[in-house]
# Entry
Amino acid sequence: MPKFEIDPGYIAGAIDTEGCISISEYVYTRNGSTGINWNPQVIITNTNEHWLRRMRNQCDNIGFIHVDKRTGTAQWRIASDKAADLFNFCKSYLFMKKAQAEVFCYSDKHTRVRVGEAQNYRQIQFISGERWSHKFTS
# Structure
Protein backbone atom coordinates (compact mmCIF):
# COMPACT_ATOMS: atom_id res chain seq x y z
CA MET A 1 0.00 0.00 0.00
CA PRO A 2 1.41 3.41 -0.95
CA LYS A 3 2.24 5.91 1.79
CA PHE A 4 0.07 9.00 1.39
CA GLU A 5 1.40 12.27 2.83
CA ILE A 6 -1.57 14.38 1.78
CA ASP A 7 -4.84 15.30 3.44
CA PRO A 8 -7.52 12.87 2.19
CA GLY A 9 -10.02 15.73 1.83
CA TYR A 10 -7.65 17.59 -0.48
CA ILE A 11 -7.16 14.68 -2.86
CA ALA A 12 -10.90 13.92 -2.73
CA GLY A 13 -11.63 17.51 -3.74
CA ALA A 14 -9.22 17.21 -6.67
CA ILE A 15 -10.90 13.99 -7.82
CA ASP A 16 -14.41 15.46 -7.41
CA THR A 17 -13.64 18.63 -9.35
CA GLU A 18 -10.88 17.72 -11.82
CA GLY A 19 -11.12 13.93 -12.00
CA CYS A 20 -12.57 11.35 -14.35
CA ILE A 21 -13.19 7.77 -13.25
CA SER A 22 -13.51 5.10 -15.91
CA ILE A 23 -13.38 1.37 -16.46
CA SER A 24 -12.29 0.16 -19.86
CA GLU A 25 -12.69 -3.40 -20.97
CA TYR A 26 -11.44 -5.73 -23.61
CA VAL A 27 -12.35 -9.29 -24.46
CA TYR A 28 -9.39 -11.63 -24.67
CA THR A 29 -8.86 -15.22 -25.78
CA ARG A 30 -6.07 -17.23 -24.24
CA ASN A 31 -5.53 -20.97 -24.47
CA GLY A 32 -9.02 -21.45 -25.89
CA SER A 33 -10.67 -19.56 -23.02
CA THR A 34 -12.45 -16.26 -23.60
CA GLY A 35 -12.80 -13.66 -20.88
CA ILE A 36 -12.98 -9.96 -20.13
CA ASN A 37 -10.21 -7.87 -18.66
CA TRP A 38 -11.38 -4.73 -16.85
CA ASN A 39 -8.97 -1.82 -16.46
CA PRO A 40 -10.19 0.75 -13.94
CA GLN A 41 -8.40 4.11 -13.87
CA VAL A 42 -8.70 7.66 -12.56
CA ILE A 43 -7.45 10.68 -14.48
CA ILE A 44 -7.03 14.12 -12.93
CA THR A 45 -6.59 16.87 -15.53
CA ASN A 46 -5.41 20.42 -14.93
CA THR A 47 -3.45 23.15 -16.69
CA ASN A 48 -1.14 23.50 -13.66
CA GLU A 49 1.39 20.70 -14.14
CA HIS A 50 3.34 21.73 -11.03
CA TRP A 51 0.22 21.27 -8.85
CA LEU A 52 -0.36 17.76 -10.23
CA ARG A 53 3.29 16.79 -9.73
CA ARG A 54 3.22 18.05 -6.13
CA MET A 55 0.08 15.99 -5.41
CA ARG A 56 1.62 12.92 -7.09
CA ASN A 57 4.77 13.31 -4.96
CA GLN A 58 2.65 13.39 -1.80
CA CYS A 59 0.89 10.21 -2.95
CA ASP A 60 4.05 8.06 -3.09
CA ASN A 61 4.53 8.82 -6.83
CA ILE A 62 1.76 6.48 -7.96
CA GLY A 63 0.63 6.70 -11.57
CA PHE A 64 2.24 8.92 -14.17
CA ILE A 65 1.82 12.44 -15.52
CA HIS A 66 1.36 13.14 -19.21
CA VAL A 67 1.55 16.69 -20.58
CA ASP A 68 -0.16 17.50 -23.87
CA LYS A 69 2.17 20.07 -25.47
CA ARG A 70 -0.49 21.17 -27.93
CA THR A 71 -3.14 22.11 -25.36
CA GLY A 72 -0.89 22.69 -22.35
CA THR A 73 -2.94 20.42 -20.10
CA ALA A 74 -1.44 17.84 -17.78
CA GLN A 75 -3.05 14.52 -16.85
CA TRP A 76 -2.25 12.44 -13.79
CA ARG A 77 -3.25 8.86 -14.64
CA ILE A 78 -3.57 6.20 -11.95
CA ALA A 79 -4.71 2.71 -12.86
CA SER A 80 -5.94 -0.46 -11.23
CA ASP A 81 -4.75 -1.39 -7.72
CA LYS A 82 -2.91 1.90 -7.07
CA ALA A 83 -6.06 3.89 -7.85
CA ALA A 84 -8.08 1.57 -5.60
CA ASP A 85 -5.58 2.30 -2.80
CA LEU A 86 -6.03 6.03 -3.43
CA PHE A 87 -9.84 5.69 -3.33
CA ASN A 88 -9.74 3.65 -0.14
CA PHE A 89 -7.62 6.44 1.38
CA CYS A 90 -10.01 9.29 0.48
CA LYS A 91 -13.38 7.58 -0.21
CA SER A 92 -15.13 8.95 2.87
CA TYR A 93 -14.33 12.54 1.74
CA LEU A 94 -15.62 12.17 -1.82
CA PHE A 95 -18.95 13.80 -2.62
CA MET A 96 -19.67 13.94 -6.35
CA LYS A 97 -17.84 10.74 -7.30
CA LYS A 98 -18.32 8.59 -4.20
CA ALA A 99 -20.56 6.04 -5.96
CA GLN A 100 -18.11 5.71 -8.85
CA ALA A 101 -15.24 5.17 -6.38
CA GLU A 102 -17.16 2.37 -4.66
CA VAL A 103 -17.83 0.68 -8.01
CA PHE A 104 -14.18 1.21 -8.91
CA CYS A 105 -12.96 -0.52 -5.75
CA TYR A 106 -15.42 -3.38 -6.34
CA SER A 107 -14.41 -3.84 -9.97
CA ASP A 108 -10.70 -3.71 -9.12
CA LYS A 109 -11.16 -6.80 -6.92
CA HIS A 110 -12.97 -8.58 -9.76
CA THR A 111 -10.98 -7.53 -12.81
CA ARG A 112 -11.17 -10.84 -14.65
CA VAL A 113 -14.42 -12.62 -15.38
CA ARG A 114 -15.51 -15.14 -17.96
CA VAL A 115 -17.86 -13.81 -20.63
CA GLY A 116 -20.75 -15.82 -19.20
CA GLU A 117 -20.38 -14.06 -15.83
CA ALA A 118 -20.32 -10.53 -17.28
CA GLN A 119 -24.05 -10.00 -16.72
CA ASN A 120 -23.24 -9.67 -12.99
CA TYR A 121 -22.02 -6.16 -13.79
CA ARG A 122 -25.51 -4.99 -14.83
CA GLN A 123 -26.28 -3.77 -11.31
CA ILE A 124 -23.36 -1.32 -11.38
CA GLN A 125 -25.00 2.07 -11.61
CA PHE A 126 -24.15 5.58 -10.56
CA ILE A 127 -26.41 7.67 -8.37
CA SER A 128 -27.23 9.74 -11.47
CA GLY A 129 -28.61 6.62 -13.16
CA GLU A 130 -25.80 6.32 -15.68
CA ARG A 131 -24.10 2.97 -16.14
CA TRP A 132 -20.59 1.94 -16.96
CA SER A 133 -20.89 1.64 -20.69
CA HIS A 134 -20.08 -1.82 -21.95
CA LYS A 135 -21.83 -4.21 -24.25
CA PHE A 136 -23.12 -6.45 -21.48
CA THR A 137 -25.47 -3.85 -19.91
CA SER A 138 -29.04 -3.74 -21.10
Observations:
- Helices lie at 8-18, 49-58, 80-90, 98-109.
- Confidence is low (pLDDT under 50) at residues 110-138.
- DSSP finds four helices and five strands in the chain.
